[in-house]
Design goal:
The complex is a heterodimer of chains A (257) and B (374). Chain A has 257 residues and is of the alpha/beta class. In chain A, 37% of the residues lie in helices and 25% in strands. Chain A is globular. The C terminus of chain A is likely disordered. Chain B is 70% helix and 7% strand. In chain B, a hairpin with a 4-residue loop joins strand 1 and strand 2. Classes of the chains: A alpha/beta (257), B alpha/beta (374). The structure holds adenosine-5'-triphosphate (ATP) and magnesium ion (MG).
Chain lengths: 257, 374
C-alpha cells in the first residue's frame, strides 16, 4: 500500500488529568480513508485519547498533527477551520437536550455555512433520513430510544460531510442487529464521504467488520502495547493480552448474522 | 448446621497456618481482619496456608475477610496459599482479586502537614481568585461581541431565560417583598411611636425598600432560584458531554450558553426590583394604616422622600447583582464535574458564591454611596 497517505499523526503523546497519568508515549499514524479503532480495557483512557484528538484537552506532552499541522499550536481561526472538517459523536450522547433533533443537526450547518433556513431544513431532513430517523425532526432527544439517540448523534456528526469522523462507542448499549446496522452505516459514510474514521469500541464484531487499523491501549503499563490491523493482531500479536482480547469474539466477521 | 458455631481464626505453626473454624456467616459476629494483621505482623511468616478442617458454613463474610488477608499478604510479600479453601470461596476470591484495585495517584495522599501548608493554601486561594477573574474577563469579552453583533447567541434561548427569570419569579417576589415591607414598617413603628413620630414610618419603608431591601431581597431570591437553576442546567450539559460538543463545533460556550442567561438576568433584575419596591411600600402602608397613619398621609410623606438618588442607587445595585448571580451560577455549572453528584454540588456552590458576592458588593456600594454623599 504505497499510496497510503498519512492523515493524523500522534507524536509521543502523554495524557494526564492533573497529576493523574492516563497514558504516555503514544505514537501512531492514522492514514487517509482508514477505519482506525482505539481498543483497550475499560478505563484505560480511550475516551481520553479521543478527546485529546479532537482538541478538547491539551496534551501533557507531545503533539497531534493533522496533515502535518498541530491543532494546539494553530491560531484560533485555523482551529475553527480544522474543526469544520470533523464530525464527532460522544460516549454519553452529547446531543443538546434542549433542542429538537432537527435543531441539533442544523447547528453545525448554521455555525459553519451561510445556508438559508429552508436549505438547512432540507439538508437536515436528508441527514436524519440517512440514519433512519426521517420524520423525527421535531422530537427531543429524551423522546427517542437510546439507539435512536446514537443515530441522531451520527446525523449531527455528518451534517457537514466531514473529512474525519470520531466516534466514541457508537454501538454501546445497542442490540446486535442495530449495532450491525450502525456499523454498516459507518462504513457506508466512510466510503461515500471518503472520510477517515477514528472509532473507540469494545465490540469485537464491529472491530473485525470495519477496522483497517488499530491501536491497543493498556491500563497497566499506561501505554500502547500494539498497533496494526486487528485481524492480524489476533493471530500474531506478541502480547497475550491483545490476543486474548481479540479472541474472545470467535472467528473474524463472526458477528450477528 | 443447627446451633451455629462461633466463627474464629487461629494462627498456628509459627504463623504459617491460618486455621478457620466455626460458621463464617454474616449473621455471626465474625472476627475483624485487624486482629489477624497484628498477629501476622508479629509472626512475619513467608508463607501462609489455610486450614479449614473446623470450618462450618460460610457466605460473603469469609471471602470478604480473606480478601483483606490476600491484600495484606501481597503487600507484605507473603505467599498466600488458598488451596485448602472450599472450592467456592477460592473461585470467588480469584474473581475478586483478578483486577488490581484502583489506586489513586500519589498526589491526593497528602500528609497532614502538607494539607495544613499555608503556602499551598495561599496558592490555591490565588488560583480560585484568578479563575473567577478569568471567567469574568471572558464573559466581558463575550458581551462585547454580543454588543457588536458578532456573538453566537440564539434568540430563542434568550427569550426562554427572560421568561424563566422574570414572569416565573413574580409570585415569590411579590410574597417576599410584601413581607419585607411589613417587617420594615413594624420595626420602625415600634421605635418611632416612642416619640409620637409614627408618620416617619413612611420614610423608613420607602427609603429602606428603594435603597436597600428591594434590590437585596430580589437578589437573594434570584440567587436561590435562577442562579442555582443556571448551575444545574449547565452542569447537566457538562455531564452529558453537551458542552464538549459545543466546543468542538467551534462555538464558544461563553457566547452560546452564558451570555443569554447573563443578559436575561441583568435585564430582568431592575424590573423585578421596581416591582418589589412598589409591593414592599404597599405592605408598609398597610401596617402603617393599622398604626393610625392613613393611606393619604403615608403617600404624601412617601412622595416627599422619594428621590431619583434613592431609586437610582437601588436599580444600579440590582443590575450588578444580576450580573454577579449569573456569573456565579454559570461558572459553577461550566466547571461542574462529570457526575450527577457534581451537579448538586454545582448548584450549592452557585448559591453560596452568589450570596457572598451579593453581600460583599452591597457593602462596597454602600461605602461608595456614603463617600459620594448620594
Ligand atoms: N474529566 C476527568 N477528570 C479526571 N479524571 C478523568 C476524567 N475523565 C476520565 N478520567 C479518568 O481517566 C481514566 C480513563 O478514562 P476514559 O474515560 O478515557 O476511559 P475509557 O478507556 O474511555 O473507558 P470506557 O471504555 O469505560 O469508556 C479513568 O481512570 C478515569 O477515572
Ligand atoms: Mg470511554
Amino acid at each position: 500500500m504505497s499510496e497510503r497517505r498519512m492523515h493524523i499523526h500522534v507524536d509521543q503523546l502523554t495524557m494526564a488529568y492533573g497529576s493523574n497519568l492516563i497514558q504516555q508515549d503514544l505514537d501512531f499514524d492514522v492514514y487517509r480513508g482508514d477505519v482506525f479503532v482505539i481498543m483497550g480495557g475499560s478505563g484505560c483512557g480511550k475516551s481520553t485519547l479521543l478527546k485529546h484528538m479532537i482538541g478538547l484537552y491539551p496534551p501533557a506532552k507531545g503533539e497531534i498533527l493533522y496533515d502535518g499541522k498541530s491543532f494546539n499550536r494553530a491560531s484560533e481561526q485555523e482551529q475553527f477551520e480544522m474543526r469544520r472538517g470533523w464530525g464527532i459523536t460522544y460516549q454519553t450522547g452529547g446531543l443538546f437536550s434542549a433542542m429538537t433533533l432537527a435543531q441539533n443537526t442544523a447547528l453545525p450547518l448554521q455555525q459553519y455555512t451561510a445556508l438559508g433556513a429552508a436549505e438547512i431544513d432540507d439538508i437536515v431532513a436528508y441527514k436524519l433520513a440517512l440514519v433512519g430517523l426521517g420524520g423525527y425532526q421535531d422530537y427531543y432527544p429524551s423522546e427517542i430510544s437510546g439507539g435512536m439517540q446514537k443515530r441522531a448523534g451520527l446525523a449531527r456528526a455528518i451534517a457537514l460531510d466531514p473529512e474525519i469522523l470520531f466516534f466514541d462507542e457508537p454501538s454501546a448499549g445497542l442490540d446486535p442487529i442495530s449495532s450491525q446496522l450502525l456499523d454498516e452505516l459507518i462504513l457506508e459514510m466512510q466510503e461515500s464521504l471518503g472520510a477517515t474514521v477514528v472509532i473507540v469500541t469494545h465490540e469485537l464484531a464491529s472491530i473485525f467488520a470495519i477496522a483497517s487499523n488499530s491501536v491497543f491501549l493498556d491500563a497497566e503499563t499506561k501505554t500502547m502495547i500494539d498497533y496494526g490491523d486487528p485481524k492480524i493482531l489476533r493471530q500474531q500479536s506478541e502480547h497475550d493480552k491483545v490476543r486474548k482480547f481479540l479472541a474472545r469474539g470467535g472467528t473474524p466477521g463472526g458477528g450477528p448474522a | 448446621m443447627a446451633g451455629a458455631a462461633t466463627p474464629a481464626f487461629r494462627l498456628a505453626d509459627e504463623g504459617r497456618r491460618l486455621e478457620l473454624s466455626g460458621d463464617w456467616v454474616i449473621e455471626q459476629d465474625c472476627p475483624a481482619f485487624t486482629a489477624l494483621r497484628q498477629q501476622l505482623r508479629q509472626a512475619q511468616p513467608t508463607r501462609l496456608a489455610c486450614g479449614t478442617e473446623a470450618l462450618g458454613d460460610w457466605d460473603s463474610a469469609l471471602p470478604a475477610f480473606l480478601l483483606q488477608c490476600h491484600a495484606y499478604c501481597v503487600e507484605a510479600g507473603i505467599d498466600f496459599d488458598t488451596a485448602a479453601l472450599p472450592e467456592g470461596t477460592r473461585r470467588l476470591l480469584g474473581l475478586a482479586t483478578a483486577v488490581k484495585p484502583h489506586r489513586p495517584s500519589p498526589e491526593p495522599s497528602r500528609s497532614l502537614l502538607e494539607a495544613l501548608d499555608l503556602g499551598h493554601r495561599l496558592q490555591e486561594g490565588r488560583k480560585i481568585v484568578r479563575d473567577h477573574l478569568e471567567f469574568i474577563g471572558e464573559a466581558t469579552i463575550a458581551l462585547g461581541r454580543l454588543l457588536t453583533g458578532r456573538a453566537n447567541t440564539r434568540r430563542e434561548d434568550f427569550l426562554t431565560f427572560i421568561h424563566q427569570s422574570g414572569p416565573d419569579a413574580f409570585s415569590i417576589v411579590t410574597l417576599t417583598s410584601f413581607l419585607v415591607g411589613m417587617i420594615l414598617a413594624y420595626l420602625g413603628a415600634a421605635q418611632l411611636a416612642q416619640f409620637g413620630a409614627q408618620i416617619y414610618v413612611a420614610d423608613l419603608v420607602t427609603i429602606g425598600m428603594l435603597r436597600e431591601m428591594g434590590a437585596l431581597m430580589v437578589a437573594v431570591v434570584m440567587a436561590g432560584r435562577t442562579g442555582a437553576a443556571y448551575a444545574a442546567q449547565l452542569g447537566t450539559m457538562q455531564t452529558r458531554e453537551e458542552i464538549d460538543a459545543i466546543v468542538t463545533l467551534g462555538i464558544s460556550p461563553m457566547e452560546f450558553l452564558v451570555l443569554p442567561r447573563m443578559v436575561a438576568l441583568v435585564l430582568i433584575m431592575p424590573l423585578l426590583v421596581l416591582y418589589a419596591n412598589v409591593v414592599g411600600i404597599f405592605g408598609g402602608a398597610i401596617v402603617a394604616a393599622g398604626l393610625d397613619v392613613s393611606f393619604i398621609q403615608f403617600s404624601q410623606q412617601m412622595t416627599n422622600v422619594i428621590s431619583f438618588a434613592h431609586l437610582g442607587t437601588g436599580l444600579l445595585k440590582s443590575v450588578f447583582f444580576g450580573l454577579l448571580i449569573a456569573i456565579a451560577g454559570c461558572r459553577a455549572g461550566i466547571q461542574c464535574g462529570r457526575s450527577s453528584a457534581a451537579v448538586g454540588e454545582a448548584a450549592t456552590r452557585a448559591v453560596v458564591t452568589s450570596i457572598i458576592y451579593l453581600i460583599v458588593a452591597d457593602a462596597a456600594f454602600n461605602i461608595l454611596f456614603q463617600e459620594l454623599g448620594i
